[in-house]
Amino acid sequence: MNKTKDFLSKFRPIILLILFSVIITTLRPNFISPNNLLNVLRQTSINAIIAAGMTFVILTGGIDLSVGSILAFSSAIGAYILVSGYGVVAAVLVCLFIGILAGGLNGVIITKGKAQPFIATLATMTLLKGATLVFTQGKPISVLKVENLNGFRMIGAGSIFGIPTPVYIMGIVFIVCYFILNNTKTGRYIYAIGGNEEASKLSGLNTDIVKIKSYIINGLFAAMAGLILTSRLVSAQPNAGDGYELDAIAAVVLGGTSLAGGQGSILGTIFGALIIGILNNSLNLMNVSSYYQMVVRAIVILLAVLLDRKNK
């Protein structure tokens, strides 16, 4: 009995993904068409990249509600740099740097200010959302007239050997994350802090630095997702990041990472993100209203949290 329970717990994300795919294929056979599967991967890439960063934060026992606002603010600044004629490289670097700064700010507030992650990142979310609206005046920043637009479009709308560029970026992100969490001291420290922060402190580990690193990585990936989204839409939308934090958290929890920290894997997050992506795609294929889609996603998030609590 215990072996069966352990097996189901370990491979839960894969089992859920397979079951979900079989059900959707039965209801909508066109789901498994190559074009639609590539579309699912393309749509999943943004949430998956954000979820990869969120995995680092949740493994430490934290949470980050500001990733959607980081995405919107950094992409708005990046689009402005691009429109101002400074080039694609400058826009990309500035966008990613803002993500790093925002993530670092969250980490410092939480570690040095001794603020609860939920409250600290809620404040940052509100701050950056307001800053984005002020900066953009509530209007999209179009990059359609930018020179060398094809180079920028390649980031979010291009393809290599028929596979969308965002899928490659997603793959590289997860490979890097897997290496960090499984082959570096930082990765081991992240698990240690999530498992028992007090014991980690007593063993001489600088828990503040490790936590700040986790939030920096999270901010970086949120900004990276913002670049992909801006490239795909050919504009930076002031409300671009709305709801992304919930989808990312749901993907991480569905992937088997505990909200209490210290338990989970980046591989599980991949499957969790695919489950969310397939859910969104299947609802679109079945022509479900966007209003009902919000209800379904909310139910999935609730079930994921309840399942996490039950396992804990």
UniProtKB/TrEMBL annotation:
Protein topology in the membrane: Multi-pass membrane protein
Membrane-spanning parts: 12-32, 44-67, 79-105, 117-136, 157-181, 215-234, 246-279, 291-307
Location(s) in or outside the cell: Cell membrane
Record has Membrane as a keyword: yes
Record keywords: Cell inner membrane, Cell membrane, Membrane, Transmembrane, Transmembrane helix, Transport
Domain of life: Bacteria
InterPro entries attached to this UniProt entry: ABC_transp_permease
Gene Ontology MF annotations: transmembrane transporter activity
GO (cellular component) term, any one: plasma membrane
Keyword Cytoplasm: no
Pfam families from the UniProt entry: BPD_transp_2
PANTHER family (alphabetical): ABC TRANSPORTER PERMEASE PROTEIN YPHD-RELATED, ABC TRANSPORTER PERMEASE PROTEIN YPHD-RELATED-RELATED
Protein name per its UniProtKB record: Ribose ABC superfamily ATP binding cassette transporter, permease protein
Species, as recorded: Peptoniphilus indolicus ATCC 29427
Lineage: Bacteria, Bacillati, Bacillota, Tissierellia, Tissierellales
The encoding gene: rbsC3
